[in-house]
Amino acid sequence: MPVWGMVLSAFAEIRTSKVRVTLSLMCVSALVAVVTLAIALGGLAQQAVVQTFEQQVGRPVTLTVDAASQEGPPKLSDEAITRIEADLRRYRVVGSPLRTAQAPAFRQVLPDGVRPIKTGDDDGGELSVVGAASSLDRIRRISVVSGRWLKPVDDHRLEPQLVVNAKFAKKLGPNPVGAVVEVGAPRQWVRCRVVGVLGGGAPWAASEIYMPYRAMARWQLGEESTSYVVRVPKADAARVKEQLKADAARSWGLGRVEIYRQEGDTGVISGTFGKVLLAVAAFLLVLGSLPGLVLGLMAVRQRRSELGVQRCFGATGPDLFLTVLLEALIVSCVGGALGIAGVYAISGPLFGFLRDQGPFAEADLAMVFPWRAALLGMGVAVCVGLLTGLIPALRAMQRSVIQAIRS
Hints:
This protein is an alpha+beta fold. Helix content is 52%, strand content 17%. The chain has a 6-stranded mixed sheet. Strands 3, 4, 6, 7, 8 and 9 form a 6-stranded mixed sheet that branches. The protein is elongated and about 105 Å long.
């Protein structure tokens, strides 16, 4: 039997068995829709976790340099940081000091006086001020939605510049960029100016406000904790790490430092999410194939006379095998397309809800329909067609002329 004859025979059976085909379409559509939606939401969750890691720790490969201390939090002196920066220029890598002041007091300067700014749990936890260099945006994921990020010239301004998060910016009024804020230093209030507003991070991310490192050192903010982060090429990470350890003993004036390599976590996160999604897809594939398999076997049983007659008129076993398999594949592919179309139709309102009020609220995610999920969903539909059509096709191929005559 030619290929076009098998295709015509498959379509003829589809037109004849409307109830069975409709049930199969519903099963496959629901299965593909669930798989596609699960993969899409899993991709958003994976993106949010990786984004939070890159915001809080750094992009791969980030090295964190801490002074080893048994008496309290690690602290690098300003002189040591100056020597570190001089050595990093030789390595041609980018780095930034980090100096953290935990939960300082804030107040806004208004034309008629000052207004205290309350911070707390509604800001995502304890709000801290982080002193950093302008190069930190090349090490960590930093998204500025209004105003600008820190510049090298800000290190020399007498009035420190601030880049605040979105929740803190709302407390400053409708025009936060340009607002004057005072930060409580150990012995005085430091007058600062807001120059940028950060985009919303993941809901579970720590709340931070950024200030030039030199300004924090000048006003003695965050003296209790100072470290240094370096972003290096993956191929040079081990070499640079050993060089930094050698320089710490030789030229930084430090007896011992702790250098942490933050590089493999994003890969582990992506791999874990991928395995979970693969396991979910495989489970749904097996579960969703059972109804179609039962319907296919029932159809072959009901068509035993018809299949036997086709054998009488010259159809071979492989012809019947391919005809039944093509029928299952056609139904599964149509059902898969309907399931993907349904998920695409609801993806806009659903992703909009997740962006505004759902678990991914305030995360800087790409809320677009993931076509990778659609391709995987169609792949699941093809696999369902093969699984549900293979056993019935084998049964049809084994149908003999004698059995057809007796039936």
